[in-house]
């Protein structure tokens, strides 16, 4: 009998953390459905790409439908899509607030709500959120209340869903990064950002991809917020 061909969905997958997580799952032998607003077409038969706004309900439906149509099952959803805007609280605009709610919370809600029934049909599954250590470790040098509101909501939802589905074969976890070298912070002062971590360096995309794969391989772990942040959560 041939082994089960597992399937993952990764959101926010065109660059940075999402692209790294997609490649990690492909190397693991998964088939992957990847999405972002700007993602290009794929010539790899193992990889299906879908361009769309993750905050729209139809995008979540399309992702799951494509996974089931093309690959016949769904095992993992990585809710990676997110917007991070550091700003003094009173300087945030309404447009920034609405964009963060749409991508960070609506995207999680619609993708996950469609994915869980497909996982149950496949015999179980795993949902992983990418959050941020700034939810639990506020730093005045990087004011980020909107990240705390939205990614903090994902932290709480992770624990709640983990308990709701604990007896039904679905695990729910999160990875909480520090500041990672990605295109999102290419124009920033990376030397200063490195000092925010006790290890005095920024993280690499591979650090987060490896953490996601650790959770993939940890069947007794659910409801966990795994901090991959160079020691930030421990203190300074």
TL;DR of this structure?
With 236 residues, the chain is an alpha/beta fold.
Question: Which tags fit this structure?
Answer:
40% helix, 236 residues, single chain, 7 strands, 6 helices, alpha/beta, Rossmann fold, 16% strand
Please, could you describe this protein's structure?
By secondary structure, the chain is an alpha/beta fold. It contains six helices and seven strands. The protein has helices at about 15-25, 55-70, 95-120, 145-165, 190-195, 205-215; strands spanning about 5-10, 30-35, 45-50, 75-80, 125-130, 170-175, 225-230. A seven-stranded parallel sheet has the order 3-2-1-4-5-6-7, with helices on both faces. Helix 1 (about 15-25) crosses helix 6 (about 205-215). It starts with 6 loop residues before the first strand and ends in an 8-residue tail after the last strand.
Q: What is the number of beta strands?
A: 7
Largest sheet features: 7 strands, parallel
Q: What would you call the structural class?
A: alpha/beta
Helix content: 25-40%
Overall body shape: globular
Q: Return the CATH architecture.
A: 3-Layer(aba) Sandwich
Task: Return the domain count.
Answer: 1
β-strand percent reads 15-25%
Rg calculated over all Cα atoms: 17 Å
- The helix-strand sequence is EHEEHEHEHEHHE
CATH topology: Rossmann fold
Provide the spatial order of strands within the biggest beta sheet.
Answer: 3-2-1-4-5-6-7
């Amino acid at each position: 009998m041939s082994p089960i061909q597992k399937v993952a969905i990764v959101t926010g997958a065109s660059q940075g953390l999402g692209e790294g997580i997609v490649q990690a799952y492909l190397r693991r032998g998964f088939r992957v459905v990847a999405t972002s607003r700007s993602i290009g077409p794929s010539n790899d038969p193992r990889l299906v790409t879908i361009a769309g706004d993750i905050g729209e309900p139809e995008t979540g439906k399309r992702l799951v439908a494509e996974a089931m149509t093309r690959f016949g099952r769904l095992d993992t959803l990585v809710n990676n899509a997110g917007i991070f805007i550091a700003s003094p609280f009173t300087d945030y605009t309404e447009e920034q607030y609405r964009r963060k709610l749409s991508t960070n919370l609506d995207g999680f809600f619609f993708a996950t709500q469609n994915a869980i029934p497909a996982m149950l049909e496949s015999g179980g599954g795993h949902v992983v959120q990418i959050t941020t250590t700034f939810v639990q470790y506020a730093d005045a040098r990087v004011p980020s209340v909107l990240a705390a509101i939205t990614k903090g909501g994902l932290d709480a939802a992770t624990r709640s869903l983990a308990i709701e589905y604990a007896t039904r074969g679905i695990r729910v976890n999160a990875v909480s990064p520090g500041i990672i070298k990605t295109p999102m912070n290419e124009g920033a002062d990376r030397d200063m950002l490195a000092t925010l971590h006790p290890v005095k360096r920024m993280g690499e995309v591979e650090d987060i991809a490896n953490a996601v794969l650790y959770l993939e391989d940890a069947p007794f772990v659910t409801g966990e917020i795994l901090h991959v942040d160079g020691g930030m959560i421990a203190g300074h």
